[in-house]
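We emphasize that the prediction below concerns an isolated chain of 318 residues; any contacts that depend on oligomerization or on bound cofactors are therefore not represented. The input was used exactly as deposited, without trimming of termini.
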Amino acid sequence: MSEIRLRRYTGADAGVWNAFVATSRNATFLFDRGYMDYHADRFADHSLIALKGDRPVAMLPANLREEDGGRCVLQSHGGLTYGGWILPTRHFDATDMLHVFDRLAHYCRAGGISSLDYRPLPYIYHRMPSQDDIYALFRQGARITETNLSCAIDLSAHPGLNTQQRRNLRRAEAASPRIDEPQDAAAFHALLSRCLAERHGAAPVHSAAELQMLHDRFPARIRLFTVSDADGIQAGACVYDTGTTAHTQYLCSTPEGRSRGLLTLLLSRLTDIFAHCRYLDFGTSNESHGLVLNEGLYRQKSSLGGSGVAYTRFTIDY
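Result of the prediction step, given as a token string:
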């Protein structure tokens, strides 16, 4: 077996990187450089490629983060919800994964990197079972530093809506609203911004221009949906379709839309639109690095038929 070695990613590797992501067992389009690099100005990219000889066998989307006291942390990846080593479908097993983590430890120590902040891809996004990294983290003495709880529907065994959500659905259907899939993100983003400001005092992670750019780059993967009645747009969703899982990146509604059950109608329709996926993931419902669960928000998601998926974060000190 050829010894595994690591080297940093450079822009010249973009084609090889994207081809590897497209055929891997455990990657989503968020690891494509066309998505990752849209916010390259905010993160000091330090992605890594593991090689046997000259053949890439694993890739790690990552950035460097400087902390107080001069500590340098390798983070996988600060601009993404999840990260972790991207692995091929064949010719790579748990033994190889252990070797990769051993080489990573050596690489970090030699480069003055104090620790690894690692957020593996949740299992519902795997194309094939791929938790070799979880085992390797255990072997490396990693500690869990954060766990957030998402809520996802298994579309192959959907238990259906609860009683209240069924009432909401009937009320919404009686109003005969229109569901559209706009290609222009402006109206959706305006509704989203109002909703987040009014309910949470927050703003979307993506600007309107960024959302439009990403939608245009990945039109089959990033899809927008709106629900309208005679008074205009009342609810909306931005859904990331990874093939295995459809993730509701953003959900929003006016007060009128909530009272009329229009978001329930839209979410019910999404289970049909994304029936080709195994899961519909509503995302996490936590604050304070997972120590606080927004119980009302989580209960609302579970009332649609979802149940828990842990998004776990690990740290290894070098």
